[in-house]
């Protein structure tokens, strides 16, 4: 596996083929042609990767290193990622059609930052000491949990993978990463760079393959895995939780979303339109946090719609490798068909005011109005560039509409009224609520959702608590 377009598993520090030699193609959704050949792993390959991670955890230096030494390797890895930003960005763009300015300009730097942040966070973390009246005190320690299986989705291939891998490694775990089958190549590149950064063999393993009856399922079934961190579809999350239950393996699940975006009449209209456009059309709508249900207060509804439509129609659709492109193709033919099925639903559920199908696997920035709250377009995660827009009259009505969803990942609101901002932020569902902005993240903050959006939170100490075994040590201070 040395050709520029060949990508192997990374197991025990070596880039290798599958045991049975099987491969699959990664298809570039813009050209709709294969561009890379990838090792296709199955159960035997996944078991081999877990065995390597287990050995590296039980016998190797990684969990026993100090935070400084481990952190230095993680920072070196971040440096290498920044040096190789062009190749990493292009890999994600070719695998999934993400505009290059987003992959190279946003995802790669943020992926490198994930390593820097969690390396420093682990090194600088404090733990509580609890003085007790009884002449004792209790202090907490956080030992690495063991082998973490990280199963990641295709929409932010490198960024989602590093969001899992970085905290797991920083806290001393070893990892088996299984990237999504549609976007495998940047994960192999990450494994290569980890070796170059001096990471010991077996600490970061990458196994490629599908989910059910393949490498993904084998990881979730393996009793030698101590943590499963998964990001993906809510239905897959349910299956993985059932598999994890057999071994009582703790899981962290970041699943789907149907984010509400509420724009009040007193909002700064330019700012609200600008963020609302980015909230739904960034990454061609393939974002769990996408502001896919937009609620606009009636006095500004018409003005908002005309500005929103003008901005949507000004977006540049094209080859995602071109700097000017803002909207690329959807990730795959299968996903295009799924999103198309929702576009086809529009005439029976509402009225399209802009957008529709483009050439190839392209769906144009699409907006739909006159939608009932129980319409499928309003309730189901489309995961494409399709927004439904609904007017409202009162604050109370807006909150009810926004919260009428089985998802609970995030919400947004736009208002210049300070009291309303705090009040409504407290009432809206979601693990994150953005006020007058969107996408801004602090890696110390909890990230995740409730209901169909997931189980648990990651970020800062939330990641520490998931990827470690917290222990209370109770000490007698005087006999
Ligand atoms: P998916 O569930 O189809 O696949 C995700 C990963 O799970 C892939 O690596 C896949 O191979 C693996 N997988 C599938 N079935 C499996 C099984 N039975 N056992 C083990 N592994 C299995 O999701 P996707 O289509 O890649 O991603 C899109 C979904 O991800 C959307 O629903 C989106 O909202 C969600 N997502 C959520 C967040 C978040 O933070 N909440 C972020 C990004 C994406």
TrEMBL record:
Official protein name in the record: Aldehyde dehydrogenase
One Pfam family cited in the UniProt record for this chain: Aldedh
Aldehyde dehydrogenase domain boundaries: 22-473
Family according to the record: Belongs to the aldehyde dehydrogenase family.
Keyword terms, alphabetized: NAD, Oxidoreductase
Organism: [Mycobacterium] crassicus
InterPro entries, per the entry: Ald_DH/histidinol_DH, Ald_DH_C, Ald_DH_CS_CYS, Ald_DH_N, Aldehyde_DH_dom
């Amino acid at each position: 596996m040395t050709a520029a377009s060949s990508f192997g598993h990374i197991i025990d520090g070596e880039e290798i083929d599958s045991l049975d030699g099987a491969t699959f193609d990664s298809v570039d959704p813009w050209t709709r042609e294969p561009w890379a050949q990838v090792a296709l792993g199955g159960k035997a390959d996944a078991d081999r990767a877990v065995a390597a991670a287990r050995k590296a955890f039980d016998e190797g230096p990684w969990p026993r290193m100090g935070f400084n030494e481990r952190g230095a390797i993680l920072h070196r890895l971040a440096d290498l990622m920044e040096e190789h930003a062009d190749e990493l960005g292009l890999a994600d763009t070719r695998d999934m059609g993400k505009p290059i300015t987003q992959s190279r300009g946003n995802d790669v730097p943020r992926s490198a930052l994930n390593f820097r942040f969690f390396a420093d966070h682990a090194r600088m973390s404090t733990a509580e000491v609890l003085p007790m009246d009884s002449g004792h005190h209790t202090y907490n320690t956080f030992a690495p949990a063991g082998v973490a299986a990280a199963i990641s989705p295709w929409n932010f291939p490198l960024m989602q993978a590093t969001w899992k891998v970085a905290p797991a490694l920083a806290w001393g775990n070893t990892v088996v990463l299984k990237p999504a089958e549609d976007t495998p190549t940047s994960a192999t590149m990450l494994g290569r760079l980890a070796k170059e950064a001096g990471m010991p063999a077996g600490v970061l393993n990458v196994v490629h393959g599908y989910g059910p009856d393949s490498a993904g399922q084998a990881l979730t079934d393996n009793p030698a895995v101590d943590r499963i961190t998964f990001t993906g579809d809510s239905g897959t999350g349910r299956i993985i939780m059932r598999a994890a239950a057999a071994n009582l393996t703790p899981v962290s699940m970041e699943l789907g979303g149907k984010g509400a975006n509420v724009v009040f009449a007193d909002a700064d209209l330019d700012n609200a339109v600008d963020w609302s456009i980015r909230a739904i059309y960034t990454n061609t709508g393939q974002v769990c946090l996408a502001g896919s249900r937009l609620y606009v207060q009636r006095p500004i509804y018409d003005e908002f719609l005309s500005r929103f439509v003008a901005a949507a129609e000004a977006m540049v659709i094209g080859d995602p490798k071109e700097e000017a492109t803002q909207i690329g193709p959807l990730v795959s033919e299968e996903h295009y068909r799924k999103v198309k099925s929702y576009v086809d639903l529009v005439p029976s559920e509402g009225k399209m005011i802009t957008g529709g199908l483009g050439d190839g696997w392209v769906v144009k920035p699409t907006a739909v109005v006159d939608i009932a709250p129980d319409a499928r377009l309003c309730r189901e995660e489309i995961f494409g560039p399709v927004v439904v827009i609904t007017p409202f009259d009162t604050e109370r009505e807006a909150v009810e509409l926004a919260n009428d969803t089985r998802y609970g990942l995030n919400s947004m609101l736009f208002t210049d009224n300070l009291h309303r901002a705090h009040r409504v932020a407290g009432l809206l569902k979601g693990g994150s609520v953005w006020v007058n902005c969107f996408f801004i993240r602090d890696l110390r903050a909890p990230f995740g959702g409730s209901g169909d959006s997931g189980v648990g939170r990651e970020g800062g100490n939330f990641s520490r608590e998931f990827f470690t075994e917290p222990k209370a040590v109770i000490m007698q201070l005087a006999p």
